[in-house]
Write a structure and sequence with these properties.
- The complex is a heterodimer.
- By secondary structure, chain A is α/β, with parallel strands linked by helices.
- Helix content of chain A is about 35%, strand content about 30%.
- In chain A, the strands form two sheets. Chain A has a six-stranded mixed beta sheet. Chain A has a four-stranded antiparallel beta sheet with strand order 2-1-4-5, with helices on one face.
- Chain A is globular, with a radius of gyration of 17 Å.
- The two termini of chain A are about 25 Å apart.
- The relative contact order of chain A is 0.19.
- By secondary structure, chain B is of the alpha+beta class.
- Chain B has three domains: about 140 residues, no CATH class; about 200 residues, no CATH class; about 210 residues, no CATH class.
- Chain B has 24 helices and twelve strands.
- Chain B has a six-stranded mixed beta barrel. Chain B has a two-stranded antiparallel sheet with strand order 7-8.
- In chain B, a hairpin with a 2-residue loop joins strand 2 and strand 3.
- The chains are: A alpha/beta, B alpha+beta.
- At the A-B interface, helix 2 and helix 3 of A face helix 6, helix 20 and helix 24 of B.
Amino acid sequence: MAALVRIERLCKTYLMGEKRVEVLRGLDLEIADGELLALTGPSGAGKSTFLHVLGTLDVPTSGRVLFEGADVFERGEEGLARFRNETIGFVFQSHHLLPEFTALENVMMPALIRRVPRGEARRRAQEMLARVGLSERVEHRPGELSGGEQQRVAVARALCLHPRLLLADEPTGNLDPGTAEGIHALLADLNRSLGITEVVVTHNEALAASLPRRLRLQGGLLQPSPRAD
Amino acid sequence: MTVRRVPPVFSGASFVLAALGVLLAPAVAGLGHVLLGDRLALPPAAAAGLAISAAALWAAAGGAAAAAVGRRLAVLEIGVAALLLLVLELGPLARALPLLRGHGLAVAGWEAQGKLVLVLGLLLTAGLSATVAFIGATASYLLTGGGRFDASISYELFMARSHLRLSPRLLLALFGMVVTGVLPGLLVAGAWSARQAARERRAARRGEPFARQRLSPTLLMTLISIGGVVIGVMALVVVLSVMSGFEADLKRKILGVHAHGVVLKYGQNDFTEWRDVEQRVLRVPGVVAATPVLLSEVMLAAGQNLQGAALKGIDPATVGGATDLPRWVEEGKLAWLDHPADIPESVLARPPGGERAAAPARVLPGIMIGRELARQLRVFVGDTVNVVSPFGDLGPSGPQPKSRPFRVAAIFVSGMYEYDAKFAYLQLAEAQRFFGTGDSVTGLELRVTPVDEARFIMRRVLARLDGHPYRVKDWGEMNRNLFSALMMEKVVMAVILGCIVLVASFIIVATLIMLVLEKRREIAVLKSMGAGLPGIMKIFVAEGLVIGAIGTAFGLLLGWGICLLIDTVGIPLDPEIYYIDKLPVLMDPTQFALVALLAMALSYLATIYPASKAARLHAVEGLRGE
């Protein structure tokens, strides 16, 4: 399979007052198109930072992120915004749904940002909510949904515009094991059926073990993580 | 290693465009005014309005181009351009001032009023020019900052609505509160809140759940900022309307006594062809009526009382067409100037016996004087008044004043103290005989329509008369000091009350900053979904504009209501002091529109800082702050 994303010598250094904190120290990675990749590692190892840089929410200190061979950070700020809108879907640990809007409106939001007409956005959102099994709850607000349902809405929102790359930052971190399994199954299913490339950060070693490719982020570098068994 | 594209802090191309907009805008205004007013001969108000609009468009276009080319708000570039304009104004322009005189440009007017006004005026020009350019730049950035033209506000409005949460009920309550004068509203709100607190305590004692409804702090701030705009707009509208009322009243009185314009002739006592000139002038479009007039300064004496007066010889038959004089007559009749024999005996009917004996058979010509003058001279209709002119016949010891008796034929009240105390009218032929001017007059008084274009119409009159030796004056010129003082007062009031709107816009800034801080996570999520900088900005600009629009609408409505109230109910004034018995109001739609424009422009400007702060928020920080 062709490489969708190639990461070259990626470094990210923060300044915390006078102290330099090197979170990522020149890591290299290739993600093939359609791959489902699990990323594990201890807390504070820089998994979220890595995901943010990969999703262009943060810029690397040095190194390159190539998407289909082109350096994404060569685009200007507006180019990056469009890139995120068209190519990337984010799922966060604490769903980050907009509390004042219904599930449907939340899922419509990326399409509205792309200036898809409202009716068309609504149709796509409904379709995506049906796909994550929530067609009965479209008019509910996030506060009226259970944790698992909220995260399903978040997944539907991330996939509304059929992105090439889905970045999930501990999507099941706040859920009980049963619900977590459901979300993971959903992510795996979407990877298979829609061919979306996914990078899933997780603490849950057992769930990670069920995924085809596993990486471990430690000391600012990536190591292949062997199957637990 | 790739070189990352980091936009430069200062864009040269942007600056050039901004400078073109900012620097040339005043020139566009000046040139436009000269071209439209002098060359195309448009009415002055229209010419000034069009010229200023053209300059504003030019500045806005310059700012817009600067923002589009530099892909930025161009704050720095426009700021530097404004400084450059200021330097140019205070340097080269100040030296070139003499060249600019005589075109009716504002700068010449400022210069005439002294250095301070000139510098303030130039500062204002630079500030306004830069502000308009900045408005253009921000609007252009909002529309094109995403790299392509995007005027859509679909999700932005969606978000803004959820932030503001203004229900019609809430707005109605706010309006009611402002209408009733805030304090009763606060009392009601306090009582309601106390009742809720009591219910909450009771529920807590019984161990029942009780959810108390509370206004969120940002919603409260939003309501306060709307209230601020309402009060500012209302105050501006009401005060300006009352001042316009005074101005209109004064204008009505001045124009009632005086003509809208006069035709004069250079030289002494040789305006004998006035009948011919009158016919020619009457054919000029806009001139409605004309009447000849002879003007001189005299002294009036009655018994021991002596008063200076401006004496006007008039033609009673045509004076009614050119002025409202016949309508002001309070006692006696204007026609008695022509027929002095009809003047009745004085009500006191006890003239000094000697005088009557001296001229028993002769009918004295009539004179009309103002009520104040009559009071000072202590005369009534039918009494005799001596008119004394210093320019008399040559006596043995040089020129001697000459004096002739007249009988008071009428007393008029114009409502203007100065006029009622100063003016006296004779029949034209009598005046000519008294002053020995033959058939010559001082000038022709004209009535024109519309009144506000008097200057422009008088210029047409002068053109018809082929200029020299004739000259014209309009009522604005004749009363320049009065009206420029009124204008100055109005401008100062507008600036001071505009400060209320300015403060209201600061509240909008504070409200929006609070909203931005509250919605940091939401902004970060929108960014992760690919919302661009202009998109995020649009959300908060829309919110500020909604606050401004609601406040402006309420303020205009309220101001209009108060004006109507003043107009119908009337606030009594002491007529001895103000010469008017109740507070005058004039509701001018243009003025209302200008106030609305000012309020909306300030609301818009207030949104820019919070909105750009929101747009520049770092997504990662917003996501982390959970």
